[in-house]
Structure formats: structure tokens, C-alpha cells
Write a structure and sequence with these properties.
Elements (H helix, E strand, L loop, with lengths): L2 H22 L5 H14 L3 H9 L3 H7 L5 H17 L1 H9 L2 H16 L5 H21 L3 H6 L5 H11 L6 H17 L1 H9 L3 H8 L4 H17 L1 H9 L2 H9 L4 H14 L3 H9 L2 H8 L5 H17 L1 H9 L3 H10 L2 H14 L3 H9 L2 H9 L8
Length: about 375
């Protein structure tokens, strides 16, 4: 069977299978709505069913049900939209155009208020379910670049930081993960968002969270710190004062490659500040980064080399520490075996290390000087 034929049949099957559930969304019975939403939630993990929801014109109905008086209904339909946004770019685009971002932010506020009603246990639990679904929806909606750029102007940064600070009256780690992930997606699209986070005093909380044992949260928060350092020079000073470089180092020893990569990226950026680079060296960071160069993951290798490069540029004593950790050998190896970006970072690191006479002698013996000169010709000296 031709792939196009199989796709067409899959789409028809999705339409036929999902139509009765869509019709149930017109019910006035909250239990019926919740049940239909639960079924659609599972189906819309598949992009063909998400496309069928869109084709049958059900997205506006689902969006309107987000304002339903019954929080169980709200949580259910919000979860459906969350999966539609995750699995279908077309759904995401349509919902963004229909103002879903502002509606989700309003729902976050509503669910926070409900979650504070501790004397009403059922309402508080429902509020947490809505909050989790709303954050999941927001996180997926922010894959739409226009929505990510618009969030700051709608006051979404302060809402997300408030959730991180208060844990939103919930023990759910998914809430923290989605809040941090949403912030990361915003700062990656909107450079002014990093400055706004810095100005609202977000750095101490982010540094606290990077020490979490939750690896997903570590990845997101380290990414936030890296972006803030890259985009706001004053953030480097503030983060250094909070001892951030030292607190990032344990991430390099994680068994999770995503955590290693995120930690190295954050160290790379904060090490543009000489005082922070010295802190990394004094707390054993050079050895950890050299060890990370042996990773089989190309992205981890690149981030480890790039962080080492900024250490060597910002802190002259790191050049000797790199040699003592036997870091020159892998750097020379990368010149001819690694990807272009890793080889270039290795060359720039070697150039900075060669300012140390002992390093220069050893590098000459390795035959690295000529290859390095070719790589660094026309390149900058530090990596931001």
C-alpha cells in the first residue's frame, strides 16, 4: 500500500472514530463532558486524531469549555487541547490565532485561586488538576514562536515565577517542570524576557531550583540560567554572588546526558565572567569538564569543550589546570575528528591555553599548533 493511501485511510478512520466523541461535547451534563474529554485526551496523543479534531471544527468548542463552571470539565478539555498542541502544529497555529494564550494565563490565575481554598478539599484538588493541565497546555502552546514572544507582554513571566516560588500549593513535580520549561521556551524566543526575569528578582529562585534532585527540572533551570547569562551581562554578576558556578558543577557528574549538557552550557555562559571562571576552577570544575569530553554524546562533548574554552579565556590559571587534568590531549584529538563546531571550540581553547609556556611546548610536541592556527583564523576569542 502506498504511504499516501495509508495516510488517507488513517485520517478517515480518525474522523469516523472521533466524530461521536465530538458530538458529546454539546452535552450539558458535566460527567458526559468529562468522559468525552478523557477519551479525546488519549486519542489526541496521535497526530491523526488531533488533525481530526481540527477538521471537524471542534477546537473552538473545546476552547469555550475551558470556561465551564465545573473544574473537572475544565481540566479534561484543557488536557485535550494540551495534546492537540503537542501533536499538531496546525492545531497549535489555529489556537494561537484564536487567543488561547491569554485564556490559558487567565485559567492559571483561576486555578491558583481555587487551589488556595484549603477548607474545600475537593475544590482544591480540582484546582490543582486544572493547574497541571493548564501548565501542560501553556508549555506546548509556547512551541508557537509568536505565543512565546507575546507571553511577557501579557504578564505571564510573573505568573510562572510565582508558581515556581510557591509550588502552586501542589506537590506535583510536573507543575514545576512545565513552569520552568515554559519560561525556557519564552527566553529562547524573546531576548527581553531574560532581562525582565532578572529585574523581577528571579535569579535566587532559579539557583535554588538548579540544586533540585529532579533531573527534568535541572535541565530546564540550567537552560534558563545559561540564557540569562548570555543575554544579560548583569545577571552573570548576580549569579556569581549567589555561588551559582559551584552549584552547577554537580550537574556535570550526573548520569543523565541532558543534565550534563545543560550544566556545561550554563557554566560556559557564566564563565564569561572571570570571577565565576575562577570559582569553577577552584572547585574542581576543570577536571569535571575534561572528564565530560570523553562522553559519547556529541552535544555533551561540544558543551564541555565550549565551557573549557571560556574558562581558559577568562581565567589564565585554568590553562595550567587543563594541562594538569590531561585536557590538552582530547582537545588536540577533536581538531581532526570532531564535528566542525566542536573542532572550532577545541582550537579556540588550545589557542587560549597556548599562552601558557608549558602548554605551548607540549602542544608543539603534539603537532597541534599548525592545525589550531588554521581553525582559529578569522574566529573570535570567546564564545558567548
Amino acid at each position: 500500500m502506498e504511504p499516501s493511501t495509508l495516510l488517507a485511510r488513517t485520517q478517515v478512520a480518525a474522523l469516523d472514530g472521533i466524530r461521536p466523541l465530538i458530538e458529546l461535547l454539546a452535552s450539558e451534563d458535566a460527567k458526559v463532558l468529562t468522559g468525552a474529554g478523557s477519551a479525546l485526551f488519549n486519542l489526541c496523543l496521535d497526530s491523526s486524531f488531533a488533525a481530526a479534531v481540527r477538521q471537524l471544527g471542534a477546537l473552538p468548542k473545546l476552547q469555550s469549555l475551558m470556561d465551564h463552571a465545573d473544574l473537572s470539565v475544565v481540566a479534561s478539555v484543557t488536557g485535550v487541547l494540551m495534546n492537540c498542541c503537542a501533536s499538531s502544529e496546525s492545531c497549535r497555529d489555529d489556537l494561537a490565532d484564536k487567543g488561547l494564550l491569554a485564556q490559558v494565563l487567565a485559567l492559571l490565575t483561576r486555578s491558583e485561586m481555587t487551589g488556595t481554598q484549603k477548607d474545600l478539599a475537593i475544590a482544591a484538588l480540582a484546582g490543582d488538576e486544572v493547574l497541571a493541565a493548564a501548565l501542560g497546555l501553556l508549555n506546548n502552546l509556547l512551541l508557537h514562536s509568536g505565543s512565546a514572544r507575546r507571553l511577557r507582554s501579557l504578564g505571564g513571566l510573573s505568573q510562572l515565577m510565582r508558581l515556581l516560588k510557591t509550588r502552586a500549593f501542589s506537590a506535583s513535580e510536573a507543575i514545576l517542570e512545565d513552569a520552568a520549561s515554559s519560561l525556557l521556551r519564552v527566553v529562547q524566543e524573546d531576548e527581553a524576557a531574560s532581562a525582565a526575569l532578572f529585574e523581577m528578582g528571579a535569579m535566587p529562585k532559579l539557583v535554588e531550583l538548579v540544586e533540585s534532585v529532579n533531573e527534568e527540572l535541572q535541565v530546564r533551570v540550567a537552560g534558563l540560567l545559561a540564557n540569562c547569562c548570555a543575554q544579560v551581562a548583569a545577571a552573570r554578576e548576580a549569579l556569581h554572588a549567589l555561588g551559582t558556578a559551584r552549584k552547577l558543577l554537580p550537574l556535570l557528574s550526573s548520569g543523565n546526558e541532558e543534565v550534563q549538557e545543560a550544566g556545561a552550557m550554563a557554566i560556559q555562559q557564566i564563565s564569561l565572567l572571570p570571577a565565576a571562571a575562577r570559582e569553577v576552577r577552584l572547585h574542581g570544575g576543570v577536571t569535571l569538564l575534561v572528564e565530560l569530553m570523553a562522553s559519547l554524546d556529541p552535544r555533551v562533548q561540544f558543551c564541555a569543550v565550549s565551557a573549557t574554552m571560556n574558562l581558559a579565556v577568562s581565567d589564565p590559571k585554568s590553562a595550567a589546570a587543563i594541562r594538569e587534568a590531561d585536557g590538552l590531549r582530547p582537545l588536540v584529538y577533536f581538531l581532526t575528528t570532531a564535528s566542525a563546531e566542536t573542532a572550532t571550540s577545541a582550537a579556540l581553547t588550545i589557542e587560549a591555553c597556548a599562552r601558557n609556556e608549558s602548554n605551548k611546548t607540549l602542544l608543539r610536541e603534539m603537532g597541534a599548533i599548525e592545525v589550531t592556527l588554521v581553525r582559529v583564523r578569522g574566529r573570535g576569542r570567546g564564545k558567548g
